[in-house]
Amino acid sequence: MKRTTGQDRAVTRNWRPATRAVRGGTWRSEHGETSEALFVTSGYTYPDAETVAARFAGDAEGMTYSRLQNPTVAMLEERIALMEGAEACRAQATGMAAMTTALLCQLSAGDHVVAARAAFGSCRWLVDSLFPRFGITSTTIDARDNAAWEGAVRPNTKVFFFETPANPTMDVVDLGFVCGLARSRGITTVVDNAFATAALQRPMEFGADVVAYSATKLMDGQGRVLAGAVCGSEAFINDVLLPFQRNTGPNLSPFNAWVVLKGLETLPLRVAQHNANALKVGAFLEGRVPRMLHPGLASHPRHALAMKQMDGPGAIFAFEVAGREQAFALLDALELIDISNNIGDARSLMCHSASSTHAGLSAEARAEMGVTEGLLRINVGLEDADDLIEDLDRALIRAGL
User: Fold this and answer.
1) Pairing of strands 188-192, 137-141
2) Position 378 pLDDT exceeds 70
């Protein structure tokens, strides 16, 4: 296997985003295949014993075991790093494997984490339930409040952890301020960028140290596989994250890596249409529901900041109705849009967060986060936006809205 012509940093850095999404990280075998090859193998053979020793010692390039390297997975890692503007990337088995690895690889008993209170349910579980079992303390804050970040810092604060936009409340965090504060205090920022991807937002441009992904979402884009990724400096990925991953094993399968590689080829095109559809659907809903949470609309309290940090608002937003009964009635009345807790799919999907993605949290935690009983999250897909609006119009009427 060898990298295709031009796959050196001096050349790829000058490629524009669409080219990176299609060509970045491509390796080819002696057969000259155009599509990336799928290497379904757990192990590798060697020409001699000296080669084995050299590879395991890190003195020679080459594969040793698919828990450590796999050609298909390595191609995905190179492409994501290139799109993100990161020095390195490591793929993970799932999005939550990425979050867990990005955090636990650098935390020890006695460390302190400042985390955004608005987050995906499993991310809050890490902070609220898992960390205390290992002697890691945390403070959850309103991540929109810059002063809250400063006020939460302790001498032993090691990590800032947040999502922007946040799931499902669409809180937008001031990346430049928070990342700048962290760097001034020697704190590592870990940003969950799954709602945007590098096609819309690149947190490292604002000073973020580590960017983590559920590649299950927009990167795949068609609801087919689970995958995750962590991007950072070569020093962080190779010296901090890799020892944890090597010995705990949250690895991505070659097949799933190949599927995500195929998804990335169309990511910029898909995201552009997601943006357009979500804005049109959001504008329709805004006049019909009690509260809208859409960073692409002027009514969002941090609309200006979102548009400064992002190249578009993305596929996902949330809105509120009167309560659980009305939320369920609206969901049950949908005919085209599916009820599903996934996001980033080509299909439009909607869910009631309090009873699905955040059901594992206490009522108190959900209230703190703003996940009310009337909150609905929608992933606007690639269908005709007018068909989605007609479906929502029928459902809203049946739900009494």
Assistant:
1) unpaired
2) yes
